[in-house]
Amino acid sequence: MNKANLVLIAVLLCVLGCGSQPNTVTHAAVQEAVPSQPTAPPIAPASSAAGGFDGSRAFEHVRHLVDIGPRPPGSDGIHVAQAYIVGQLKNFGCEVEEHDFHGSTPLGDIAMKNIIAKIPGKGKGIVLYATHYDTVRIPNFVGADDGGSGTGMMLELARLLCGRKTESALNVWIAFFDGEEAQGEWADKNSVQWTNTNSTFGSREMAASMAISGDLKHLKAMILADMIGPSDLKIKKENQSTQRLNDLIWATAGRLGYGNVFVNESFSIGGDDHLSFIRRGIAACDIIDFDVATTYWHTAEDTLDKVSPRSLAIVGHVFVEILPELEKKFR
Ligand SMILES: [Zn+2]
Q1: Where are the alpha helices (DSSP H) in the chain?
Q2: What is the Å distance from ligand 1's center to 195 Cα?
Q3: pLDDT per residue over 225-245, tens digit each?
Q4: Measured in angstroms, how far is the CA atom of residue 147 from the centroid of ligand 1?
């Protein structure tokens, strides 16, 4: 039985009733199951119906990243991913910066790299879109949703925004963070400790360097995307996020007809890259579907079939359309 079939059956079994049972039970159960054909992912809307954002292009980036294999900080895989991200951004005509730094981790000093595309605006104000492109250090973990989906979506957003002829009132920066995941030797889900100093290395580094350079005082909003792949995507308002920024995004999503995706529910996340900016007084928010925490999250089952081009397009479309809203507020 190939892996795609196994995964599909695991998902079906889970839908049928595994609830909060540990994944290992599901794995054992699928060994005897009959193979079936995987269903095709939902098709992305035409880019003309999504503000120019092409969900199928975003999905192809995710496919490429998954094909590289595991991409934890300092690995051969992440070096290939870095070359891919930088190469794509340059192809799109973006101005690209590579910020190299070292993360002090339980595994020792690890060389890390943030990649930032900068689209100049007329004024001084900055809007920062961000995601993380590293993957958690779990054997055989290819991070389609966690690490891949946000990166694919942001690459397509960069293609669209870097190609625009008219200058925006705001500077738009698109950051790809390294080292979001907690570092450590993986034994099981609880063996690596997420702490404020052993996680979010890239976003902490960027917030600190923006404070030193003086750019931080021009930063109007930081909008993070992380794990936006599921075909039944459901984004809830994250409680530690800046609520007026959430409100602006949810109002825009509602206007575009995505009220069933950007739902009026809330939750709190243990940690993510937006908090590196919130702690410095910047308006920031986390766009994430964390309902998958009870299914494939941080398991080797976070594979390409978990990512829908349509879901990437919905988030991408909203991100395109919030830009004029932010310009109205901060020009
Ligand atoms: Zn993760």
Answers
A1: 3-13, 23-30, 55-68, 76-91, 150-162, 201-213, 243-255, 275-278, 309-330
A2: 13
A3: 999 999 999 999 999 999 999
A4: 7
Q: Is the pTM of this model over 0.70?
A: yes
CA distance 120 to 48: 24
CA of 136 to the centre of ligand 1 (A): 6
So where are the chain's domains?
1-40, 53-330
Query: Domain 53-330, what architecture?
Result: 3-Layer(aba) Sandwich (3.40)
Query: What spacing in Å lies between the alpha carbon of 247 and ligand 1's midpoint?
Result: 25
For ligand 1, the distance from its centroid to the CA atom of residue 278, given in whole angstroms, is 20
Q: Is the dihedral of CA 119, 82, 289, 145 positive or negative?
A: positive
Please report, as a single letter, which amino acid is at residue 21.
Q
Q: Around ion ligand 1, which residues have CB less than 5 A away?
A: 136, 146
pLDDT tens for each residue of 62-72: 999 999 999 99
Cα 135 to ligand 1 centre (Å):
7
